[in-house]
Amino acid sequence: MALKPKDALDAARNIWGGPRIYEAERLNFIAAAVNPKRPYSAYMNQPITAYDMGYPTVEMPKDAPQVMKNLAWKSRTNFLPLILDTFSQVMKADGYIEANGVPSSAWQYWQANGLDARQTGVHRAALEFGASYASILPGDKAPVIHGYSPRRMTAIYADPDIDEYPMMALDVNGPMVRLFDEEMVYHIGVEQYPLSGLGAQMRIPDGTQWVFLEAREHGLGFCPVVRFRDRMLLDGEQQFGIVEQLIDIQRRIDETNFEMSIAQYYQAFKQRYVIGWLPQSEAEALKTSAAQLWTFKDDTVKVGELSSADLKPYIESKTSALSDMAAIAQVPASALGNSATAMRNVSPEAVASNDAGQDRKGSEIKTSFGESWELVLRTAALIDGDESAANDTSSQLRWRDMTTTSPGAIVDALGKMQQMLGIPAEMLWERVPGWTDQDQVRAVELIKSGDSLDKLMVTLSKQTQAPDPGMAAGLGGG
């Protein structure tokens, strides 16, 4: 049953003034840690505090000189985006396969919505914040699938650990607000929208006007929003993505870099000092500093030397912090530039062992994301009237193979699986690097059309072989 305009406005205000505010401070803090902005105070002669603009930075005295403030910003070496890249870049869905190995008809909705590229935003937001969302609504030509960051969408569940769909979801896109429920999408305008920045959307300003614009029926009987989580947790356990637990280590790296920069700036070279004597002019001071031999008539004058700073302890401290970050994030230390020289001339087995932790964690995340994408595609099929695909819970999302193993070695292993284990070749096609659902359909058509399997394998071999360097050079020339 559709909500009345007043009830829709009240529901939107309650979600914004309750769960959204509760989430906003944490989400904004994580977002700022991943993508810090240089605050205005850094350009002015103003102190930079430990939490200036709401994200972690180094601590320093309030009356610190400007050069120290500049060194603080130059010392920032943010590894958090790199951690996100390490996982998001290997999570590319490449197909949706039925139990019999045939591509599902629901995959057409993926292609129609350009999700080959747009899946990255959904995955990255879930990795960064612990959750992201996708809405599925009727469209003119096909169901429309749209992804959302949790900073933009807030969903309310009766049982957040079990329910596939929320009771309601609020999408805040600047002054335009949409409220999703089981029957409708309510469009609401918000006047006097909060200014952008870390404090935005954390409260409803006094005098804010909410204007009901329209309600559009989707008629599905459930709220058409699906949540993506980097892991499935139970009993109300907090989900925090892969970034939040690394922010303290990132602080430690920034502090070490800052302290090393200070030592390098002020104590990089040996310094001489003279006690009991002052130059009478600037020229005399310059002459003394450039002289190879200093002489003084007054025997009470003392000359000494301060040694240069040793930067090795700072480097070792940073290396230790990077090792901690790599261990907790489950990425190879070499991915963070740590011990990179130790990775030279190592065997493929050693490389595989080094990547094992990342592969295990990535597999767990893919399992969670895969379940969400399957629900999205089944919902799209339901909207489009494809009951067979909508009720098919046996189909599985197929992920692109992003391993560093050579294609030739993989094809050789697959060939042995067919010969020694008797596995049909058609079942092994999807495991070939770069082999998409479209390639599999084309392969079946080639076989049905009378083309020999040998011809198909020649085509497959050409796709997996590296291009000839000379040919590549010829193609690139004028």
Quick tags:
single chain; three-stranded antiparallel beta sheet; five-stranded antiparallel beta sheet; 12 strands; flat; 478 residues; alpha+beta; disordered C terminus
Molecular structure report:
With 478 residues, the chain is of the alpha+beta class. Helix content is 43%, strand content 14%. It contains 16 helices and twelve strands. The strands form four sheets. Strands 4-5-6-7-8 form a five-stranded antiparallel beta sheet, with helices on one face. A three-stranded antiparallel beta sheet has the order 3-2-9. Helix 2 packs across helix 6, helix 3 packs across helix 5 and helix 6 packs antiparallel against helix 8. The longest helix has 30 residues. It is flat, with a radius of gyration of 30 Å. The protein starts with a helix and ends with a helix. The C terminus is likely disordered.
Give average pLDDT, whole number.
80
Task: Give the proportion of residues in helices.
Answer: 40-55%
Q: Residue ranges: pLDDT <50 for 5 or more in a row?
A: 40-56, 195-201, 469-478
Structural class category: alpha+beta
How would you spell out the order of helices and strands?
HHHEHHEEEEEEEEHEHEHHHHEHHHHH
